[in-house]
Amino acid sequence: MHTRRLAFLFSVVVALSLVLSACAPAAAPSAAPTAAPTTAPAQPSGPKKGGTLTVAVWQEPEHLNWELGTQTVMDDINFLLLARLSKPNEKGEFVPVLAAEIPTTQNGGISADGKMSTYKLKKDVKWHDGAPFTCEDIQFTLKTIMTPNNGALDTGQYKDIDAVECPDPNTAVIKFKNFRADWIRFFSGIGYIFPKNAGKPEDLKTWAYNRKPIGTGPFKVDEFVTGDHITLSRNENYYVTGKPYLDKVIIRIVPSSEVAKQLMKNGEADIMWNNTEADVPEIEKMTNVKLSTAPQAGGERLILNLVKPGDPSDNKTPHPILGDVKVRQAIAYGIDKQTIIEKLLNGKALPGSSEVNVDPYNCTDIKPYPFDQAKAKQLLDEAGWKPGADGIRVKDGQRLRIKYQTTTGNKLREDSQVLIVENMKAIGVEFYIENQPSSLLIGSWAANSPRKKGNYDIIMYTTNASIDPHSQMSNYFHSKNIPSPDNQGGVNYSRWNDPETDKLIDQAGSIPDWSKRKELYCQAAARIVDGASHIYLYQRFNLHTFNNRVQGWIPSSWMGPLWNAEDFWVK
Length: 571
Prior knowledge:
The protein is of the alpha+beta class. It contains 15 helices and 22 strands. The protein has helices spanning 2-6, 72-81, 135-146, 155-158, 257-266, 280-284, 325-333, 337-344, 373-382, 411-426, 438-441, 450-453, 470-477, 499-508, 514-531, and strands at 52-57, 86-88, 94-96, 116-120, 161-168, 171-176, 219-225, 229-234, 248-253, 271-272, 289-295, 299-304, 349-351, 386-387, 393-395, 398-399, 401-406, 430-433, 458-463, 534-547, 550-551, 569-570. The strands form 5 sheets. Strands 1, 7, 8, 9, 10, 11, 12, 13, 17, 18, 19 and 20 form a 12-stranded mixed beta sheet that branches. Helix 14 runs antiparallel to helix 15.
């Protein structure tokens, strides 16, 4: 769900010291490709009012209450109905929506200690039912989220807010218990805002709102027919003069993506939601559509265990093979990422570069490891691993043999493994596959997950940062977050332990200035890439299909295809 993608947790866990030179960064590989999202079709003339769009989705929303669900389709529909104080634009920059401006230290909206943000609200904003939007609605939203046992999902996220104060109807003062570098995501990145007349907070699960939300967005719900469609019409009270352009949007619920593709081909649907790379060949043959592509954050990667497997309480003894940074870098140089992208993803992905790879925190100076078998072999030679009789390298009687795991039942990952195993064989490294169900491989400490307890060599899966990367950087790479018996919730699964990385992450999380934070995160991300504790394979795209008659859409790395629907119009 896109709202959940914007949400993240700050971790507090156990610090450990640096282990040998195994975790020390080495020389950086050079040059990262940056991908500009596809551009929308050229507009032959200015926007025109009127018309109906049909969106084909194959996931039916259980309801439309953003605080009770995590379905991606629900969140995408809510972009049509609801609004936040601010939202990210196509560049990932937060822009005001219900707020008149973004609070900053310069305009006095952020207090000196960073624990208070003051929002001036736009005047004359109305809810779908004509009631005025005021600061009291924000107060009510916080009260609802923090009401115990009502099913609210964001209680843990909002617990650091002490109060929302309303000096007047058009001013909201958000007071935090502690400094939060990510202050902007509250009532913006996490969830939306409820109208104060939505219902009693304790009755959240039974609100009429849940099937027919009252919002401040460009459209409103006319009808919700289970298993068939949701019809939305223009919000005549919308605060932006002249928008939205469309009269109606119909969310057509279909049984499968195959049905959706047929509707797009026949012109019966205008937008196809949530494509995969497997859809691309068929879509590219359609002459009446255009594919929207925008790179996703993070991506598929190999996570390398830097400590010796076997004892979950020992996070200091280096892994007998992967504890050597030259071996890790050799693996990175030895993988042919572009072949994986071309053969398995129909070319619709980028070579993986770093943890922070999408605007507004895109570290463009960090470049992917190139495919360089000669460099890989040189590094292994320098590390003392010499080719044996069968080509697999040996050192001090030990074979360069590494267990390579991912989750069962994922064909893309299994096919990737086949290619990577062959890549490794070519440089004298033996990868052997031992996949497990996700519930076991990447499960909990109590379930003896190999990932949690460090009983693995290399695991492959996808994870990504939110639009504010602090949680991801801290969780995955700060030494305080290394899993242990005393810190079973830790998620620094590679056991990366680098004091300089810790320092950079801590510093970035202590200041409110986003531009200064970016530089610090990029420095930390560069050390992680140099040390090859995570080897980034590919960065996928958000893929959605639009009929050529649809104008005004803009691809987004962070949000769904309907995020700027107030700007949509039809030829």
